Amino acid sequence: MIKIALLGCGRIGKMHAATVARAPSAELAVVYDPIGAAAEEVGRHYGCAVAASAEEAIAQADAVLIATSTPTHADLIEASARAGKAIFCEKPIDLSLSRVAACRQAIGGFSGPIQIGFNRRFDPGHRAARDSARAGEIGELQQVVITSRDPGLASRDYLKASGGIFKDMTIHDFDLARFMLDEEPVEVFATGSTLIDPTLAELNDLDSVMVVMRTESGKLCHINNSRAAVYGYDQRVELFGSKGMVISGNRKAHELERFGATATGVGEPYLNFFIERYAEAFTLGLESFLKCVEENRTPDATFEDGEKSLALAEAANLSLAEGRFVNIREIRA
Amino acid sequence: MIKIALLGCGRIGKMHAATVARAPSAELAVVYDPIGAAAEEVGRHYGCAVAASAEEAIAQADAVLIATSTPTHADLIEASARAGKAIFCEKPIDLSLSRVAACRQAIGGFSGPIQIGFNRRFDPGHRAARDSARAGEIGELQQVVITSRDPGLASRDYLKASGGIFKDMTIHDFDLARFMLDEEPVEVFATGSTLIDPTLAELNDLDSVMVVMRTESGKLCHINNSRAAVYGYDQRVELFGSKGMVISGNRKAHELERFGATATGVGEPYLNFFIERYAEAFTLGLESFLKCVEENRTPDATFEDGEKSLALAEAANLSLAEGRFVNIREIRA
Amino acid sequence: MIKIALLGCGRIGKMHAATVARAPSAELAVVYDPIGAAAEEVGRHYGCAVAASAEEAIAQADAVLIATSTPTHADLIEASARAGKAIFCEKPIDLSLSRVAACRQAIGGFSGPIQIGFNRRFDPGHRAARDSARAGEIGELQQVVITSRDPGLASRDYLKASGGIFKDMTIHDFDLARFMLDEEPVEVFATGSTLIDPTLAELNDLDSVMVVMRTESGKLCHINNSRAAVYGYDQRVELFGSKGMVISGNRKAHELERFGATATGVGEPYLNFFIERYAEAFTLGLESFLKCVEENRTPDATFEDGEKSLALAEAANLSLAEGRFVNIREIRA
Amino acid sequence: MIKIALLGCGRIGKMHAATVARAPSAELAVVYDPIGAAAEEVGRHYGCAVAASAEEAIAQADAVLIATSTPTHADLIEASARAGKAIFCEKPIDLSLSRVAACRQAIGGFSGPIQIGFNRRFDPGHRAARDSARAGEIGELQQVVITSRDPGLASRDYLKASGGIFKDMTIHDFDLARFMLDEEPVEVFATGSTLIDPTLAELNDLDSVMVVMRTESGKLCHINNSRAAVYGYDQRVELFGSKGMVISGNRKAHELERFGATATGVGEPYLNFFIERYAEAFTLGLESFLKCVEENRTPDATFEDGEKSLALAEAANLSLAEGRFVNIREIRA
């Protein structure tokens, strides 16, 4: 049994706790949260220890799940690595590429599994799309189109601390793009607008963006994002190749269709929001991590993946600022 | 906490055990299975008692889940009722309408909740269809069309003991029809053939059937069944009314679509078989039962529902034998 | 060039005129309509002769298109056959099976092509479904399900003269069923109600019906009809066999889908009504007839097809009256 | 009756001839083609005059349809304008922006209707998408995504004379983008690759491109093109706004879906190629032009539209060369 320390007992933390509880190979050994009551609640529910500090929790476990706030991620990764524990950390590692690079160097000797929480890689539909491409079903992959729109604008407080749309929202799509392309994007173009809330300009942020990337071999990738799609959480991935196309589409709670005098074939709304839409992905991602710990394998979404997606977000910021195709080699920590 | 006794630790029994384990209001107190090892396994997994007999298990619980073989259902319902325990029993109550009637009389004074495992009523799509109709969204309901096809012929042994297609397979659709129509069918026509396996005629059974029913007010309902749909488990319900139509369609594991040189828009196969397709329905049905126990309410699928569906199956058998529209009043236990 | 006489210059007649005008192998030579002005209008538009009587028109042509009112069909078929002209006649041949039988005998020696206007056989989707079945793509055909619903109740005058729903509306589906089954239905069950307009009972007619048929080899077929589907003209055919299923679905003017705060994936309404939905089928059916005339081949929808569909409608009436499965051999002209 | 002169009797020319033949308000008066036999054939078929020169044809008509090869368009527009005839000219006006500007000046005083053959504006689905946006159904338009992929690489000869992918293929999408955005794009980014046929690099051409554009108010638009989609001609337009989304999807010959042991919901291939897919659009576009001639109104796709789309193509070429967001004001004839 893999003993798990859960750091952070918010919404995502609780999801992870439930997944661990169902996993045959792992048990929730200890939880920690800066807000003691939150940790107490989870501890009571699962009958596990509650630690007074992250370090204390880490010490009692084989593997650490880091689900605390972003600014603590890198420190906790370093602490866990120093203690020699397997690490699962929610994205992003940090909003600063130099902090991420420093973290990478700090954990240089660490040989255990470390997985970053890019859950979309584990979504059954998205993964089936990529598996199809890898299996050659669509021939040589040529173009990737990712549509990713949130159902509604996040709170001002959230947005202020978010690091901007490219690091907060598009970063998921950058990771998904890399996952699908199976090749590094080397050039990045990005533009955007504040069409939903013009006052976002005060935060130097955008709510509507479009990105185009190109890999060394010439593969093309487009990403579009919106912070507010009134029809729901819109998550689509299209892979186009020399022998065909696959599209991973949106999911609904069930397959009811309605037909009336004024509307034909009305489907259910899309699963909304990421907790619902990617529920399976959260579970499958953590289960995959537990397997990697058991078998001492490299996870599917590594520290390097976290760093590279952040570099793409930085490239997008630079492209936006300078209105040009930015080469990823220009981006240094 | 509602203490649960689980009778029968086969596939369905295990699903119920897992649902109880997740339920905040209930706990698995004791399990029983005629095959001791099966009970032991479930008992160990959930850390609960293992009873030497059904009666012993019933005695230790507040509510009894009957998931044993069909011929034991009525006896166990009677035993549970005598002991004053809430009852959840898998369908059918019995293959003999007179045995069911006798059971009804035997438990006459029983006032606790008793639910029959007609899981399809709890399928989110099917239920949304019915809710839509009840809410008047399609006006006056006029026609119901139920398509229900198994992915492959069951084993000869299963079929021999099944009671025939109307009592074994169509009975689910009879219950669903009643659930959707919100009115009793009073006339039943049925016909069928052995198109998949002609040797089924030896068992006096059919593998392909079509039914038409009519209610007192003239509502019409069609059911078609096949024992073997190679493309998967096909479960559709269509409600047609004066203001529109709703269709509850098939479900897939995810929404990948494939486009190649020879095929456009190829979807994933349908969830296959009932364990997968109705996984949510099994869970929601049992959760609904637990709520009824807590609140001492009448469940959504009652003993009477079980008896009436069986009567419709008998009417179908009579219609088949005599080639005519059979009035449900002709069917007596 | 095949010289065409068009008898009847109403809506359907005009459609046929336009199809002939586009056909490279035929020309509209002469038109006739009991309402002179109607014939004059078409004659002027296409620059062709206007006959003073049907006989006069027939005499001037190689092939006769009969698009007059139903009670005149049999007489005009006989007149055309006597004159040795190829015949295309709108359905039905007559509402009386004995009149149809008499007509058959009257034209006994006629060897030219005679086609009945069962246009649905020529609908590209329906025909592709049948071609797929004939090609063995779905293995042995086992079940056929036909959904056929008009968008709104016809006028009282129309209904009074219609011969009742089975002869007027279901007859199209009886023909389609025979076309799909590739085998004669031998048993017919029918029931129905007046759910849309209860006063239809005064006409001894129904507005909502369900039919089940069975062929000699045991193939099953269900038809459901409604006189009023508020969401539009609903025309679906499903063929189910040992190796798969094909569904010929509804058609829309274009493929726009709408997504808003309260509705997802809203499609265009279905093409409405038969003139729009079966526009291609009308054209393809007539073009097929012209080919048969050119090549002196037997058309796809023969006089015999017209007679057999009417016999099925009679069987449905008898089944309705007696509440039983009626053998087609009981139906005599 | 509007007398039409058709210049160019190739594939598109013949389509226009057929449309004119069906139009109640116009007649094909005269045809011309540099290949005399081609003109003779059309002339014979429609019983109209065959001119020995374009000028001779123009002189006999009220309106001129220019469907000759691209290099002749501007000259024929000028000749028609000089003769005071209404003009319908296939796209593009010319491959050179300066030639287009010169043409504009040459016809400066011309006041008659002049329409450029951007047929996609008249596609029922695409137009319904735009009408929906104009009617405010999706609120403020924020993003446009256009997917436009040919089914197979054109011949080398065609590509050599094409002017490159942006002027030959993307130009349709530039026009469609302008039509949908209802606002001028002011910034253009483009990139691309030769993923289908690397030897296209010899022609300084691309086969796979992605474009992003931005309007003054910040609306965003993405276009992706491929010269070879093996699954067929892929033509989709997505409009996303503050109140919803509309998608104009691909069209199929009919709505058959196939379900087998290895594939679920297989649809018909998409209509292939533009002649089939945009058949209605060609007809509706020309009919719209005829209406404009009758009513002396400005057409929906003007000379200015032709010029502006070409300017966007030039901007794409410049963006590709310099790897930057190009302002449309940088593009001068």
UniProtKB/TrEMBL annotation, chains A, B, C, D:
Gene3D superfamilies cross-referenced by the UniProt entry: Dihydrodipicolinate Reductase, domain 2, NAD(P)-binding Rossmann-like Domain
GO MF, one example: oxidoreductase activity
Domain GFO/IDH/MocA-like oxidoreductase stretches: 126-246
InterPro entries, alphabetized: Gfo/Idh/MocA-like_OxRdtase_N, GFO_IDH_MocA-like_dom, Myo_inos_IolG, NAD(P)-bd_dom_sf
Pfam families the record matches: GFO_IDH_MocA (PF01408), GFO_IDH_MocA_C3 (PF22725)
Ranges for domain Gfo/Idh/MocA-like oxidoreductase N-terminal: 2-99
Domain of life: Bacteria
UniProt keywords, alphabetically: Oxidoreductase
Family per similarity comment: Belongs to the Gfo/Idh/MocA family.
Name the record gives this protein: Myo-inositol 2-dehydrogenase/D-chiro-inositol 1-dehydrogenase
